[in-house]
Design goal:
The complex is a heterodimer of chains A (about 450) and B (about 60). Chain A is of the alpha/beta class and about 450 residues long. Chain A is about 40% helix and about 15% strand. Classes of the chains: A alpha/beta (about 450), B mainly alpha (about 60).
């Protein structure tokens, strides 16, 4: 399936673009060919921008030839989750409600990526309005896993993950309200970063839950994540290069209690194997405890559901049947929650943020699996994990949603493959305000796992 | 979390009954399983031992 282990990274390709071994037009043509070949089966893209991408690629080639160098993203084919505005293109949010919408201007993060020279090949499929973890409820049909089209690619940024894993583009931009970048990244074997809360602007992006939404890059390597993240911040002078940290004597915390209670056997084995690599690289790996981590799902729901219901209140009144049923019921249910419980949850959120901050004073980073299970069948409501049936949605969010509440930067990197051949994710959580340091630690974890 | 779990908090049970009745009144029976899941989460939220604590200084 996946070309993510063998396909070139942005950093490698940027060198080829400058030594004449490749052109942006040839890279873009190759990506468009992959889309033509694979998209009918995998449904990763809603909109393909072939003519526009080829024109932008030719412009990037001409600029490089004339000595105008915008940095490592110049001429690199990227995609956008289709709830991010790209001027002149539809922003569907994978919903029938958005039919006819055309973005009048670029989202600020798109403007920054354009300034860095990125070439956009298309807009990727997602779970409708990003309100789901499987990318199966979409007005454009479900996103399908490259290894087995009957399985979910994860979500909600599922199309972006599939596009990267199969070589349809080099990187994508996703959004993450409870894990929507990291979950599909884990299930498809790529890298996904949820930066710190508020670190990147959300203007021009269809909201789900205003206080929990994040936007971030999805790529094939931590270094590529660093490159795209810098461009999204408007930081183009990345000539200093990316340097992973040495893990020697670096303390890494593992929050086992609650978070490891239910793990598929293969996921647990992959994680423990990865820990061995970190220890072999000199890391001081210690178990840590987040006392109220178990309360995260209840706290998350009482913040996320009312916020999403608020965004969609008018549409739910006017066009309720235009939503996918599962998305509609979750939005409707959010309208019944009480304000007093929303306020309780706000206090719980502060408690959790404090506890994660305190834990990260005892170690440089936390590590844990990204998703407790491997890719579930499309349409499954429950799966068996930990010896009993569990709801897919609850499991998919279980290890990720805490850090949307607390705002800490988190990255999911490939964490190995189970004996059955399914990719697992390995999350690395950094201190608030220290995304750059997180990426350097994650780069070391990635290197240790090779 | 399944909808067979018993909700011990009487106020949450009352909220759920009211919400389910409203879903029936609106002709939205498919909403009821989601409301039951939400009720479980509300009961968990209200039972948390940090309720009533002074907010931590975390900014």
């Amino acid at each position: 399936m996946s070309r993510s282990d063998t396909a070139p990274t942005i950093s490698e390709t940027a060198r080829q673009l400058r030594n004449g071994a490749a052109t942006s037009r040839s890279l873009t043509t190759a990506c468009l060919q992959r889309i033509t070949e694979l998209n009918p089966r995998l449904n990763a893209f809603i909109t393909v921008l072939a003519d526009r991408a080829l024109a932008d690629a030719s412009k990037a080639d001409a600029e490089l030839a004339s000595g105008t160098d915008r940095g490592p993203l110049q001429g690199i084919p990227l995609s956008l989750k289709d709830l991010i505005d790209l001027e002149g293109s539809p922003t569907t949010a994978a919903s029938r409600l958005r039919q006819g919408h055309v973005a009048r201007r670029d989202a600020p993060i798109v403007t920054r990526l354009k300034e860095a020279g990125a070439v956009f090949v298309g807009k990727c499929n997602l779970h409708e309005f990003a309100y789901g973890t499987t990318s199966e409820d979409s007005a454009y049909g479900p996103v399908r896993h490259p290894l087995d089209p009957s399985r979910s690619a994860g979500g909600s940024s599922g199309g972006s993950a599939v596009a990267i894993a199969t070589g349809m583009c080099f990187a994508s931009v996703g959004t993450d309200t409870g894990g929507s970048i990291r979950i599909p990244a884990a299930l498809c074997g790529i890298v996904g970063l949820k930066p710190g809360l508020g670190e990147l602007p959300l203007s021009g992006i269809v909201p789900l839950s205003g206080s929990l939404d994040h936007v971030g890059p999805m790529t094939r390597s931590v270094e590529d994540t660093w490159i795209v993240w810098n461009a999204m911040r408007g930081e183009t002078s990345v000539s200093r290069g990316f340097s992973p940290l040495s893990l020697d004597k670096v303390r890494i915390g593992v929050p086992r209690s609650y978070f490891f209670d239910v793990l598929e056997d293969g996921v647990r084995a992959c994680f423990e194997e990865r820990l061995k690599h970190l220890k072999a690289a000199g890391a001081d790996v210690q178990d840590v405890w987040i006392p109220h981590g178990k309360d995260a799902p209840a706290i998350y729901l009482h913040i996320q559901a009312p916020e999403a219901a608020s965004v969609h209140a008018r549409s739910l009144e006017q066009h309720p049947d235009a939503y996918s049923p599962n998305v509609r019921w979750r939005l409707e249910a959010g309208r019944y929650l009480l304000a007093e419980d929303h306020v309780r949850a706000q206090l719980g959120r502060r408690v959790l943020r404090h506890e994660v901050d305190e834990t990260l004073q005892t170690c440089r980073a936390l590590v844990l699996p990204t998703v407790p299970i491997t890719s579930p069948p499309i349409g499954a409501v429950e799966v068996t994990a930990g010896g009993r049936k569990q709801l897919v949605r609850g499991l998919m969010l279980k290890l990720t949603q805490l850090f949307n509440l607390t705002g800490h930067p988190v990255i999911s990197i490939p964490g190995g493959v189970t004996e059955s051949g399914w990719p697992c994710g390995f999350q690395v959580v950094g201190r608030r305000g220290e995304t750059e340091a997180l990426l350097r630690i994650a780069g070391a974890c990635e290197r240790a796992g090779r | 979390m399944t909808d067979t779990h018993v909700i011990s908090d009487e106020r949450v049970r009352a909220w759920l009954e009211s919400a389910e009745a409203d879903a029936d009144r609106r002709g939205l029976p498919d909403l009821k399983p989601v409301l039951r899941l939400f009720a479980q989460a509300t009961a968990t939220l209200r039972a948390a031992d940090w309720n009533g604590l002074t907010p931590p200084d975390d900014e």
